[in-house]
Amino acid sequence: MKISTKGRYALRMLLDLAEHQQQGFIALKDIAARQEISKKYLEQIVAILNKTDILQTNRGFQGGYKLAKPPAHYTVGSILRLTEGSLSPVACLDHDPASCPRHSACATLPVWQGLEKVINEYLDAITLQDILDEQRQAQNKNDYVI
Length: 146
Prior knowledge:
146 residues, single chain, 6 helices
C-alpha cells in the first residue's frame, strides 16, 4: 500500500488549517505557498473534502477554508480514507463479503486482515492535534536561550 500525493497533501493541508485555526478562514493560496503545493492541486483536494463535513467555507474578500471541528476530532485514518478510498493492503479486503473465489480457502488472508487491522488502528489513533502537539514539542527542544 502506498499513500498517494493526494492523501499526503490533504493531510498537510488540514494540518496547515489546524495550525492556523486562530486566524479564521485561510485562503488556499496561503496554504499552497506555505506547503509548497500547487493551488490547482489543493483545489482538487478541496473538492473531495467539500463532500464531507470536514471544512467550513467562506467566499468573498475574507474567504477561505477552516476546519469545521477542533483538530482533535480528525484522525489521519479518516482523512486518508476520504482521499485514498481504502487503506486495505490487498484488493480482496475491499469487498464485504469477499468476492474472491478463494476467500474461504486462502491461507494468506489472515495475514492481510491482520495487516489491515494494524494499519487502521495505528492511523485512527493519530489526530491532527497529536501531530501539532508533537511538532510543537520538537520545536521547543530546539529553542535554546543563552
